[in-house]
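2 proteins. here.
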Amino acid sequence: MNNAEYATQTIKAKAVALCVRSLTFLSSDVVELVLMPASPEQIVYREGQFLSIRLPDGATRSYSMARGSRPDGQIVLHIKLRAGGHFSEMLRGGHVSPGDTLTALGPFGDCVWHDADATDRVLMLATGTGIAPLHAMLDSLCQRGDPLPEIHLYWGGVDAQDLYLHRWFDALAAIEPSFHYTPVYAGPLEARVQHVAAGSHRMTSRTRIYACGAPAMVSEARELFVSHGLPPERFHCDAFEPALAAQMPTTKHVTVHARGVDGACHTLSLAEGTTLMTALSARSLMLGVCRGQCACGTCRIRVDAGSFERLPGASRQEKRLLAVLDDPDTHHRLACQITLCQDLNDITFDLPPPIDSA
């Protein structure tokens, strides 16, 4: 699929049952989870996209696909095991085993590969398991068998153990003269990778950047490279916080009116200063798969005309995602991008429908 085709493609996420084929430790704290469709239904994705695993209590955890798309529907995830993490402890404690069935939601995200030619220079920046979507892109390109464009990969870790795919990238660099791999060790991950890359490359209109990993790294990389001349539309990113950020307590509330797909109207008093998505997710009225990163579209709402005029304008990133979601409407907005304040008191909107099950 070329870039023009993707620009007009609509994204419709669905829920699919996946069977656990294997769990393999790639390092002391990174697990490779291999999943296969449990029915003819598959999650068809583009390299760089992600899915969410729905846990038994209804919580979701999001992970990027780590390998190129396969005809048999196989999905590979790289999962960082975090102390006290809900899904991490399930994996570490043996509560997920080969043969088990998990429910996955997806695909989500628009940080996908864009075809490049001989005049393009591609920079890939990653920290930690942010390498997964970049590995998927490179895996897919290698499957095609076409010559690679000029690609420079910078992957940050504290030590060699953190760079659990080091041998794979080293081997690729040895056989592909247009692929260059630079491991970046030590120092704060958020402050290193983008600086090393920026010191080695001049930005041009033919540079394209993919940045995946720590939100602080991604945010600073965007600012750094755009300020050095990179066209903003040629910066693609995938950044996830490990958990929802805690909200500051407040004594002020905003009243909203949310209509469900069954026509029932919920009048809710929500804390000022939170995002609409966070408040509605806490009441199980919507999903917040990407945790406010404006990447999944599961929190899309349709706002009544009178209320819509009171909302602050949408960012370029929000407009871009809304444009590729299914059934677009001029009164759609993303709830994760709406911060509740007194100016929005008594707004009315339609909740999104639940994601279809396979």
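next one coming up
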Amino acid sequence: MGIQNHPVSIRLSESAKDILDSTARRLRRSRSYVVEAMLKGQSQALEDSAPTDGNPIEARLKSWRERADAATSGRDAKNIDAMIRELRGDD
């Protein structure tokens, strides 16, 4: 029996969709592949960064920023900051 896929609908900002599309093109894979790979790779990291007290959103964003900085050496900090603002809903 093969792997069973389940359709899921999500809403992304234009910039997040652009990132997803460019990553999929670069890897020559589908959007679904990229999203699934990222979820599998980041789920434990997200759980590990879940705060136990204080402002959970700010603490989680700070943790993601630190992880992004470490994982994206050479990437533009301006793009990372824009993604963080987007997650916060500042835009």
